[in-house]
Design brief:
Blueprint (H helix, E strand, L loop, with lengths): L2 H34 L2 H5 L6 H4 L4 H26 L12 E4 L4 E4 L5 H37 L7 H8 L4 H27 L21 H7 L6 H36 L6 H13 L2 H11 L5 H8 L2 H7 L15 H28 L4 H9 L4 H29 L2 H8 L8 H5 L8 H10 L4 H26 L10
Antiparallel strand pairs: 1-2
Length: 489
């Protein structure tokens, strides 16, 4: 192991050590506050505002007590009723019955598995937040006690308010965004992950039906690679195509974008502004419009097939066995043609963006590097391979990793080119609502929209995250080095 690798390993180890140490200090500080605090500080463990009100911080103490009262109210009215059903996700099925008094059909007091799951997660998050706030309250009460014992001034409510609008204004600004992240991102994300461990599908749709926990059954179904397992078979096919697509779509646009940038920026190229304007115009058109138009162009009865038929190309391809019918070329309806065609269309869509980025980088390559290489006898290829490409990779490395991850989740290109056009003839893939041109993300979308198979969609969503996380971590730790600045300075 090199010295730099050892330094990075020690850095990661020390980072984890500091994190665990901070958590340990937080718990230790809470225990110390209760052990060394006076009667008012200890009473804060029962009435959160007691320690503050006893030392003149009346408004602050009342606010903390009101928050505690709200949590206490929510325990029997919200937290306990939902967590008590968390293990079963509900047992009472929705039913209608005739009420002879009102002479109407009325619903019973039924359970809703999804709401139980959602509210249970919210309850658990609320409990964790309440415990953390309780511990911070104990530490704060003890700190106020020590401040008073040292004869120093204890902040009033106005002082605390001025502090939140002054030195700690960042906390005030981040409070609402943090609450939004918890409510709109973290809680829904936890719920979506937990759905992977249930049987939530079209046969178990609340409120007419309930779903329950099934453990790792869905993961076993997905990783069961036997010929009889439609999901296991489809997962292997879709995953392999997703990885091939991500690599090919990224590097074809990347390399061709660099070559186009070098061509346009070459001193012998005429009309540089014209060529740049052409690429800018293609970027100005919304991508979904371009993709839908291209899909119509390459449809079985589209304009491209009409031209190919008229010039005899379709008949020639049929005679050599390249296409199964003499009526049209299956550009987007046959897997052998659809995959390469989608890659080519993506190149047409993606090159302008990569070309503009590469243009900016090429303009910033130090001229003395290329001049020194030319004086030393390097030809154009050697200068490109040893100077231009290393510099571009140094600058665009993180962006390239992001492009690979982005192409794994590139929903637009695949969906807009294949939806209602490509129909798989593979029965096992059809049973899993997948096709040969699907990515993991489009397969996930189809499972939710067409099959209401939320459990398997959740499993695939987890695996998409795992694949993206592994690629990102490996790329940044192994491929993208941060120690080459001096090479280009």
């Amino acid at each position: 192991m090199s010295m730099m690798q050892q330094t990075k390993a020690r850095g990661r180890s020390s980072g984890l050590t500091r994190a665990f140490s901070s958590v340990g200090e937080f718990f230790a500080g809470t225990a110390e506050a209760f052990r060394k605090g006076d009667i008012w500080t200890r009473l804060s463990a029962l009435v959160c505002g007691a320690g503050f009100m006893a030392r003149g911080q009346i408004v602050k103490g009342i606010l903390k007590t009101l928050v505690e009262a709200l949590v206490i109210y929510l325990i029997p009215s919200f937290i306990v009723p939902n967590l008590s059903k968390f293990g079963t996700l509900g047992t009472v099925v929705a039913q209608k019955s005739f009420d002879p008094v009102t002479r109407k059909n009325v619903w019973n007091d039924y359970d809703n598995s999804f709401l139980i799951l959602l509210f249970s997660v919210m309850s658990l998050v609320l409990i964790i937040v309440a415990v953390v706030l309780w511990m911070k309250n104990m530490r704060a009460a003890y700190q106020v006690q020590r401040t008073q014992e040292r004869g120093k001034h204890v902040n009033s409510f106005r002082d605390d308010l001025d502090d939140l609008l002054g030195k700690r204004f960042h906390i005030t600004l981040l409070s609402l965004p943090t609450l939004g992240v918890v409510l709109l991102i973290i809680i829904p994300l936890i719920v979506m992950i937990l759905i992977a461990f249930t049987n939530y599908d079209h046969d178990h749709l609340p409120p007419n039906a309930l779903f329950t926990w099934v453990g790792l059954k869905n993961f076993r179904n997905l990783f069961n690679m036997s010929p009889e397992s439609s999901f296991g078979y489809s997962f292997a096919k879709v995953l392999s195509w997703t990885l091939v697509w991500a690599v090919m779509a990224t590097f074809t646009c990347f390399i061709l974008g660099i070559l186009m940038a070098m061509f346009i920026n070459n001193r012998n190229t005429m009309g540089k502004r014209f060529w740049r304007t052409c690429f800018m115009v293609t970027m100005a058109v919304p991508q979904f419009v371009s993709l839908l138009l291209v899909r119509n162009f390459f449809a079985n009865q589209g304009i491209v097939n009409t031209l190919c038929k008229n010039i005899g190309l379709t008949d020639w391809l049929f005679n050599i066995g390249a296409i199964p019918t003499a009526n049209y070329i299956p550009f987007l309806t046959n897997p052998a043609w659809a995959r390469p065609m989608i890659l080519l269309i993506n190149i047409w869509v993606g090159i302008p963006y990569q070309m503009l980025i590469a243009t900016g980088i090429l303009m910033n390559i130090p001229a003395d590097l290329t001049e020194a290489a030319r004086i030393d006898g390097a030809n154009a290829w050697q200068s490109f391979w040893h100077i231009t490409m290393p510099y571009i990779m140094f600058v665009m490395g993180p962006s390239l990793v992001n492009s690979v991850v982005g192409n794994i989740n590139n929903f637009n290109v695949i969906y807009l080119l294949s939806h209602d056009v490509y129909v798989t003839q593979n029965q096992l893939m059809a049973n899993a609502n997948a096709s040969e041109v699907d990515l993991l993300i489009t397969w996930l979308f189809g499972l939710t929209q067409d099959r209401q198979n939320y459990k398997m969609a959740s499993v695939i969503g987890i695996l998409v995250f795992v694949v993206c996380a592994i690629i990102t971590l490996v790329a940044f730790n192994r491929m993208i080095k941060g120690d080459k600045e001096e090479s280009f300075q």
